[in-house]
Amino acid sequence: MPPATLGAGDTQLAQVIDFAIAKVTADGTLLAAKTRWDLKTVAALTCAASPDAYTVPAASDSVGALREVLDTGYLQIAALGPADWGVDGNYELDPPVGFWPDYVAGIAKAIADKYSLGRVQVNRTFYPSSTQVLDAVRTRRHHLTEPYFNTGAFYRGVPRRVGMHASCSVLGYDSTFFVNSSTGIASAAALASAVNGRPVGALSEGDWHAVAPVLPQGTPFQVYGSSSLLEQAVTNGEVFAGVVSGDPSANAGFTAFSSDVVTLRSFLLPAQQMPTPCPSPPASSAHAAQPSAAALAVLAAVWFWSLRVHG
User: Fold this and answer.
1) Does domain 8-157+266-274 have CATH number 3.40.190?
2) Entry's InterPro entries (predicted)?
3) 299, 35 Cβ separation under 8 angstroms
4) Angle (CA) 113 119 122, round 5°
5) Is 40 helix (H, G, I), strand (E, B) or coil?
């Protein structure tokens, strides 16, 4: 399936978002936020961090979603939660704090500076599932998603890169499994051999879709609303393992190890037309989606190059 095509009213905002991503990468905003919150990520960029190479519409020529942003001074964002994901972002606080809130604030500032606006503010609306977030963006109740969305996951039976328009990637997450240290498991391969149909916990459907191909087909999963709830579920055996973007609590009696999967994270914007769905990953009674041939193909097809960001 080809990537999604933007609707005419959304193309300009997508151009500006890509410019802003390049700008905050080039000027050190991204690095400062990562350093402040000690976020464990990798530089995995699908667009070069050269903001001067990006063409954006003049304010007088703006239409659609970009026109709304410039007229109102608000960027309308659909978000997952509210939840506390530790250094990634605590969205239970108002205003939220963490890496992603800082990053989005940097994007809003880059847009405001580009158009000589005093300020562009961020207005978040929260939804309890990734599918509901993407539904809200596709129906244009909001301009775009938060930038932490995994572009390699699924949306209503099709890969997200087909059902939605993905911005330039922001960064990559090296997804991390963790288990109770008493299991003796210390690698993704060992986990795949030992899981034996027991559920794995994740913080979102997207996080699960990212790692599902490295586990046996049929492995169920359960989504938890916060890092603390997920860690509690692993501790008490409700799930056999957890997957997070980064590291679990250092003193919680866990063994953490790489999933050997790096996922790209991007803003998602409305696509012009939803394609005929391809088969969804089979579901289980524990909210599970299993890896399918389509999932493996999507992961294999993800192309990117790593750029070192400011030392």
Assistant:
1) yes
2) PfVFT1-like
3) no
4) 115
5) coil
